[in-house]
Records
---
Amino acid sequence: MEFSTTELVSRLAKLFAANIRYEMSGMVGKVRPITRDPADIGQLDCSGFVEYVIYHTTTNRHDIPAGSRRQWSWFRDNGYAEVDYPTFAPRNDDVVRIGFRAAEHGRNDEGERVRTKAGHVWLVINGSTYESTTRGRNNGVSSLNWDARTDQADAFYTLGSASGFMILRYLSKHLMPAQFLS
């Protein structure tokens, strides 16, 4: 998977600047049509965020499925390299990686199997997560330090390079934010 670093930095900056809240309920947290501008998105769940970012920032506009479980299967079944989270998540190597937490299940009072905790998916670049979550300072698009997800990473895959991400991200945040947000 190839990323356009300029588009990745720009799209992330726009998503962070937009007033997007985390919402998980069927298709409510998905962007339809996926071509919408970040300013027109009101809510995203974790897999909707990942689907949107990958579609808009990969050079061939990869259209991955919706839903963290389906996304996990898609990356596993399409030959992406699974790597160790604590070893690769903190690396400052301008590589985009994706983490998955499996859903947890239990039994209700009637003995039926029920989901007790939803699955989750997030991107990791240079030691930071990029995700839509209720965790952290925001209820929505957020970035956490990689180790906030260490105990949750049931699978972790290398997606591809985003050469120059670190410097472009720095420039977008500190020197030229208006250029990246326009």
---
Amino acid sequence: MRILVTGGVGVNGAVVTRKLLARGIVPVVVDRRADFSLVQDIKGKFDFAELDITDFDAVNSLLAEKQIDRIIHLAAFIDPNMDTEPFKSFQVNAAGTANLLEATKRAGIKRFVYASSRAVYGELPGNVGVPEYRLISEDYPKNPLLSYDATKLAAENLGQVYRTVFGLEFAALRFSAIYGPGKQARHGKMSLRSRLVEDPFCGKEVHLQKGGDQVDDLIYVDDAAEGMVGAVMAEKLPHAAYNIASGVGCTLRQFADAVRAAIPGTVIEIGPGLNPLGFSVNRAGIFDIQRAGIDFGFKPKFDLASGVKDYVDALRRLEQ
């Protein structure tokens, strides 16, 4: 089976690439730059193409040439300033996905798994978010407010059109907050949990003025990748959207406690309150993951303690 992974050397894509190789599948990995810092140990074991998904001719040619069977689409514009760059966000996240969908149709590819986000739900008010945190299902109303949110939902909606009109087995996976190695370097300010792990790992103290009471649904990158692989390998995908999350909530203080357990001597101080980074939209919530469990057996393997421990172990391996 030939599987294309866009963004396959990125934070999440690198783990997807590893999991496919472990299953005996040599993926075709696409990224706009040949940065192999997260995959040094497996470099050369997968087929790599440096390509920008906003270039339709290049995308169309690659899919025709490589005889791809299924696609995992992770490539996206993720940047601390992305919500002040709506045009670039649309070009990459929406138009880039449109390029892949059309090239997929022309190449006769039947399965397309898209990495979406909980951002499509927008802010989660009332008893859905703070303070009661009712589980959010895939049918919860979508209310994107920022550039990233809107472009992710636009890509989802277009994928649904290709599913309905052309019979493409399209499914969008809506991830909760992912934590794992590489996010601090690649995603900057947006990677708060990575800062809470990677700064103490380097011997630095962490001091946050607020946010210790913020409850959120966190998923370790290994579980997120397992969701992607499970969806692309499933016998069938009855639904066009799935939540991929832990299904439980934890506070930022609880996350800090897990870091202290994994890295002795850690100094982390967090003040009370919510929304530690002060984002204009607070997307924190807890997500219902039953649908993914029923349709392709998704079940997170890592709880908070084991996820943080594996994160620290991975940082040690990357240092070698």
---
Amino acid sequence: MKKKNLLSIGELSKITGVHIKALRYYDRLGILTPAYVDPDSGYRYYSFCQKAVVDAIQFCVDLDIPLKHFHDYTNETEPWICYKDLVDRGTVLVEEKIRIMEERLDLLKAMQSEMERSEVSYRNEYPAKFNLPERTCWLAPYEGALGCDESNEQMKRLIMEIYEHGLQLGNANGLLLLREGGEWKQYIFVDVNTAAAGTPSYPELLHIPAGQYLCKKAEQSGIGQVWDWSRPYASEAEIALAIETELFVGNYAFSRPVLEQRCLLKTDNAK
């Protein structure tokens, strides 16, 4: 075979923009076999038409189509590439990527909105009302404050229970006051992400709808404080439940997070 009619691996690298190491890797995978290998030097040579194969391989790389499946779109006996199947598969993958990126963008926007709200609450010296989104919590009875060994042990137990039940862990945790049988009961909670459809029901799960909260920064943990600072702004009968959790400010001190206490106000229909 006349090497002068073929492209060296360096020349193929230049015209395709694909690194020589990658071309060698494709050879090892068996998806880009050189047209000729010099028996003396071991140098690889390629025909110009093999540029189309490299282009198709890069198409797969760009779309995250596993190269181990590249043979599904080629024919070993006839030199053709089934671009229809490649394009169809690529379309499905890109649409899925777009869906995932849109979900991530929604999450980032929600985080940005909450940070802006948190900064306002952090600067407030007095309680203020905010509309907050729904949440689902995994609960366990607990009487203490946050930040101690007991609360950390309880939090770890809840996190492992969420994991063992095949649920997705949320980003928040804290304390919760819930009226049961005419009395307020205290719980410790961890948020559960219920974005995926078909989340099963468990007695430990509590779904809290979106609503208007009376919120105030807390200097130290102790959810019973809500009755002291909320009294001038809302009666106990107007409060559906109370939450103590971390305030999601822009500069997050994870070792000593700022706390916020929130009272969910009943709607007119629920009073």
